[in-house]
Amino acid sequence: MSAPIAHGGGITGAAATFGGRPDDWLDLSTGINPCTVVLPDIPARAWHRLPDRHLIDEARRAARDHYDSGEILPLPVPGTQSVIQLLPRLIEDDRIAVTDERVAVTDKRIAVVSPTYGEYARAFTSAGFAVHAVDDLAAIGSEHRLTVVVNPNNPDGRVWPTDTLIALHDRMKAAGGLLVVDEAFGDTDPALSLASRAPQLSNLIIFRSFGKFFGLAGLRLGFAIARGDILARFEDWLGPWAVSGPALSIAGSLLRSDVSPIRGHIDERNAGLHAVLKGAGLQISGGTALFTLVTDARAGDIYTHLCRHHILVRKFDYAPDWLRFGLTPDPAADRRLGEALQRFER
Amino acid sequence: MSAPIAHGGGITGAAATFGGRPDDWLDLSTGINPCTVVLPDIPARAWHRLPDRHLIDEARRAARDHYDSGEILPLPVPGTQSVIQLLPRLIEDDRIAVTDERVAVTDKRIAVVSPTYGEYARAFTSAGFAVHAVDDLAAIGSEHRLTVVVNPNNPDGRVWPTDTLIALHDRMKAAGGLLVVDEAFGDTDPALSLASRAPQLSNLIIFRSFGKFFGLAGLRLGFAIARGDILARFEDWLGPWAVSGPALSIAGSLLRSDVSPIRGHIDERNAGLHAVLKGAGLQISGGTALFTLVTDARAGDIYTHLCRHHILVRKFDYAPDWLRFGLTPDPAADRRLGEALQRFER
Fold first, then answer.
1. Whole-Å CA distances, B174 to A160, B35, B99, B144, B168
2. Of B33, B80, B89, B220, which to mutate for an interface test with A (greatest number of A Cβ within 10 Å)?
3. Domain range spanning residue B15?
């Protein structure tokens, strides 16, 4: 077991150190939409019965139409984390032809375009793979059996154009490898998504997150988009009824709803956060609509200062001058953050 | 990938063959309590935020008190299915010392006391293990690295006394093996549970189902009770946030509630079902409070006859004279089942 990664959402731990009731903290440590969507009605049977084929199929069709994945019906999974954990097993499964004679089957090298979400490196390292953290797609070679690109990237918001990723896919495929594109933060900029191209890209796996954009991270729901035999393997390993009935029911409704008000609300909150950060003289160095990255030599001190004001943001061991700010839920929270930042001793 | 097992809950498929709207079918094909519990209030943050440590810890403490597992805090898992899938990986993990020199490390034999829930054999077969289906605990030998006992057993309701299972555990442990006791249907007879003994039984793993007894199978929630390093391995492989916030929140409430009304309701429904089956001249050959097994040479014909009346029960490929009836939700359903059975041509 490798050491667990400190993700956002650890309000309990922060409150234990800095005091305050967890409910009174302002949690800006995640990239989850903080604006409450109206939950659609959940039929009683979604709670009480095992998720039936009808419920699963309806969520898959809604996801296909929402993500525009053509003939591929996205596979619902209990959070993309659950399929990240399965990637090492996937590329070691000899029923999935991801390697050819140019890659020795004993070769356990994969590439992760970094820095990025830490669970990919953790899952592969834990399974005995050598993980190459590359910062440039040119560093990916035929020795890599799989490459992970998070697009847009977390935490810096770096984006890769569709054509660049298709060229990378073709290069991976020619060497018998797989390309994983994690579009967890892709909902606010659908033009970046490779989903509509997935039916023609046999060695591509796309992960989508449901909870971040819709502000329902507690649901544990994501989707995998890939060719049929890869999705069948994931489905087999996750076992029957991997996703809860309420999650499937809610997804079936919300993925068919008009999401433009949600996008509008996120953009409004993002503008509010940017105004606060700029007002405090902080330098915005990246981000997506759902989070903002600040680069500051005093990042560690700002982090601790905000904790003393019971505001949790995200810091990074590997980049001590970075802080990631999730969206504030409302203008009152903007003011609270702004006032706390004003009190920081410069 | 081995072929999927046809479990209960497949109303969509049955309706496609025999007609009718799925909602109009009477689903007696599962062992899930059909009586609706009142859902406790779910705080908004359980839906919207990643499940925080506080929510997880509270559910674990409630489960410890409910299952009486002493110093062991049961691990919440997204359905026991999710940890069944991990058992092959567990006994191949060289950090878990489950074998000693008396068992060759290349030996891939496990025992499943059978017939029983099919997913154990499927998970191990799929991982390259030889699964010995034994019908008697005496047939379990030192060559078996792991034994599975479902207690009470599904579908025949067979029970093993606590002392018998402890002796089996000690025998497995002496040979370096593990004992898995699946208590998915154990809630209606807590005296059968090994949970209170688990802290003293180092090579025991207990699985508990939350959804069956509470009638919330759609939630996808179960608990694993075992020594710390085994639970840590499961937790690591499932990854962070494996269980949804609403499931943790509901479990934290309901596991602390008075469950005697639920037991009473289940017993009442069980009596109603038994009266109908006996009234139809069927021979009850086993079961638990949550399902009843009937043995009848005409089982296949009865199954098809009931399907024509849009009532789904469970049949078994390996025992063509068995039918399993789940609980009817109310007296009206008793009458509907009774009338359909009366029309069966004898």
1. 57, 44, 9, 12, 10
2. B220
3. 11-30+260-342
Asked whether the beta carbons of A212 and A48 are under 8 A apart, the reply is no
B171 with B269, same domain: the answer is no
* Residues A271 and A206 placed together within one structural domain of the fold: no
Q: Tell which of B209, B234, B254 closes a domain.
A: B254
A127 — pLDDT class (breaks 50, 70, 90): confident
Does A228 contact chain B (CB < 8 Å)? no
For residues A328-346, average pLDDT? 94
The mean pLDDT value for B299-321 works out to 97
Q: Which residue has the tokens 């988009």?
A: A225
Average pLDDT over residues B132-159: 96
Tell me if A38 is assigned to some domain.
no
Q: Write out chain B residues lying below 8 Å of A50, CB-based.
A: 7-9, 30, 32, 217-218
A285 with A300, same domain?
yes
Does B162 fall in a domain?
A: yes
Do A79 and A198 sit in the same domain of this protein? Answer: yes
Same-domain check for residues A193 and A118:
yes
Q: Quick one: DSSP state of residue A139?
A: G
pLDDT value at B1 more than 50 = no
Q: What is the pTM of this model?
A: 0.91
Query: Is there a single domain that holds both residue B95 and residue B197?
Result: yes
Per-residue confidence band for A1, with pLDDT thresholds at 50, 70 and 90: very low
Count the domains in chain A: 2
pLDDT exceeds cutoff 60 at B262 = yes
Res. A221: pLDDT tops 50 = yes
Which residues of A are less than 8 Å from B217 in CB distance? 48-50, 241, 245
Q: Which of B11, B78, B220 sits opposite A52 (nearest CB)?
A: B11
Q: Where are the alpha helices (DSSP H) in chain A?
A: 11-18, 44-48, 53-67, 80-84, 87-92, 119-126, 162-174, 211-214, 228-238, 245-254, 260-279, 299-308, 331-342
